[in-house]
Amino acid sequence: MATFRNRNGKWQARIQRQGQVPVSKSFNTRQDAERWARQVEAQMDQGRFVSLRLDERTTLGDLVTRYMAEVTPLMKSAETDLIRLTALKRNPLCKLSLVALTPPACGGIQRSTSETRIWWHRHSGTGLHLQHH
Prior knowledge:
Layout: E1 2-7, E2 10-15, E3 23-27, H1 30-45, H2 53-57, H3 60-70, H4 78-89, H5 103-106, E4 110-113, E5 116-119, E6 129-132
Antiparallel strand pairs: 1-2, 2-3, 4-5, 5-6
Helix pairs in contact: 3-4
């Protein structure tokens, strides 16, 4: 069930359902807030709603940092991979949120950093392939 409240001249719609992450959004009019709430609730009813809240706040750099801390130390090639991932973190793509990380944003980006070339493409399910030259 959606709730609506007027906050600082804007209407906030908030949807809170058991088993779902609470979702809210602000609008200029109550009518717009109600329309959005109906759409989101319909998507939730049909099992099609996906919250992008975390994806909007998380950057590729955040994921690389987490990967470096949690996965890389367990690998045989940890030392080499840390060097490559550190170079990757300097890539401007690492500043993009996951929502903004679309094929057009990544397309054709090739960056050379200290003999490391980074190509973006799908490779064995990781979406990333690092190659040292």
